[in-house]
Amino acid sequence: MDFSTTQRLVAMRQFSTIDRFISELDKGLRATFGRQQGTGRHQPDRCPTDDRMSAADKAHAASLMRVNHAGEIAAQALYNGQQIGARSEAVRQRLAQSAAEETDHLLWCRQRVEALGQSTSKLAPFWYWGSFSIGLLAGLAGDRWSLGFIKETEDQVGDHLRGHLQSLPEQDECSRQIVEQMIVDEQQHGDLAKQLGGKPLPAPVKQAMKLASKVMTTVSYRI
Fold first, then answer.
1. This prediction's pTM
2. For the chain, what percent of residues have pLDDT higher than 90?
């Protein structure tokens, strides 16, 4: 049996409920325990000034990057949950591609937190499975609402990251470079979701999303 035939057979396989459960559990474990490797994009690594940062500046930068890492765990979960509820195969594939690109952010943030001498959020499993549930509900609401949810999420994340650029120590060029690239990627994901037909969310939903984000960022800065 040649390779192309094998690929077609794999693609035709109908996964059982147990298969899907194991697959989602594996994704969650990889995201929360740092087993994802990213897409291979070059990691921002301009870090010649770390030695000139004070201990307080390093601690603050590490806490901000821990917040960003927690946010990327939530992003993975949202995309994975939305894939399950997606009705269109095109939307499902786009969600999968965006999730894959977000693994780079997850990897970069984790490595940066550790390089600054701290650890990622101890509440990572909570951030993941809570966000997964929200993503699943968004996906089940329909593709246009799901895409609109992505657009609003990415807009709020972009605002949050721009705030971090203002708060990061000026000497922390490495963290700044990572955050700058994340802003570019998040903007692209949000714009694509809108192009695919994302529907603007009602104001109360947007406010609820901001409140949930505020809770996560406040807690993950410390834990």
1. 0.78
2. 8
